[in-house]
Amino acid sequence: MSVPKQLKKLQLCNFFGRILNDKSTRMASLEIIKSGLITLIVKALGFTRELLIAFYFGVSETIDSYVLLILALTFFVVPVSGSFSTLLTPRYIQFDDDSRLYSAASLFKKTLIFTTLFVIFVEFLQLILLTLLPTAWTFGLTKLFESYWLALVPIALFSAISTVTGGILVGQGRVKTFTCMPATVTITIIASLLLFSSTNLYLALIFGTLAGFAVEMLANLTAVRKLLLISHHGLLSTADDFRGMLAKMPVLVGSAIIMNACIIVDQIMAVLAGPGSVAAVSFGNRLTLGLISITAVIWVVLYPVFSRLVSQKNFNQLRQQLFQNAVLALVLGMPICGLIAYFSPEITRLLFERGEFDPAATELVSEIQMFYVLHIPLYVVVMICIKVANAFQNNSYLMIANLISLALNVAFNLLFIRWMGVAGIALATLVSYSFMVIFWLVIANRLITNHHSYQLRQKDA
Fold it and tell me: Model-level pTM?
């Protein structure tokens, strides 16, 4: 072996040796594994719930009405509460030890009050629209939509409070508690369907859903009860912090809406590929969405780590954490996802091929699934970089990045659909994220470099 090749091999071994020997990386990896196992159990429970709902209801107009109800109730609420949650985590971490509880309690309570008022306002507007335009809201479905709207309205508030509280839990480093919380909704729905299966099944589903979100909210609030029980002394002291959060909200909410549009655009563009394409894309993306929801623990765990390093102005360690975790995501993720992609036909056949889902559908869906699965490691790296930007509370790049991602996705969809049909939609997602990984790595590194340079200039001044 030549000397240059030996040198490169030695450098590569040293790089991975540093990753494995780094204490903070090992601790973060251990936390990711623990939280990942909990998430896997929660998702298994969720899959059991879906099987139970499919057993009782099948593919029916009733379930269409139920899904539309949940989507309509939470569509505007989720981006706002999610943005507050994202902003609360670094704010909580940045408080000094002596004042953290009082300041965090003040900021948290203000956020809860604002979120509650916002949800009430949004649901009131939606109720007016439902009254004036019932046909537009129900899409010609049954009267179940109107009948149970008021019963399910509290779900929006329960969900929003749980999401906001999750930002505090992550800031406290209680990621395992945070990942457990969604299981309460699943368990309550399963229990309701099993207990009341002999009566009105749809009513049991509605009750289980409402009770589940209520239990989740109460569990979240109980987990942060220490903040809630602190007296209101000093509530005005964090007025500037709260105004600062509100100032950052439009960009975050707008970015979240555009990101949702990036997800929905594949379904819309599938119409161009012909009949049955929308269903094929939906089936082809299910495994990927499930795996992404599990890998989400990676950036959930890393977010408070990044925020703490920013608060400590430890930018060298932050850069090291960023690139080490990005490399690990690619080095470990690519082979695993490549293996899943290789066995995509067998997996699709095992999951879906029965009844009207014939071998031709398996072949089509497996090809779509293959491309979607391969983009998961790229998606993980992008989300890690986004959490670095969130840790700096610099969200100006989010809107630009999501607009670029949306434009790339639409452009590549139009290109690849002509070339290879509906499978081109999944390929377009893979290619788009290949570009976005480069974009976000450059942006995250630039943010770290700029703040580090500013720190050095302050020291020299």
Answer: 0.73
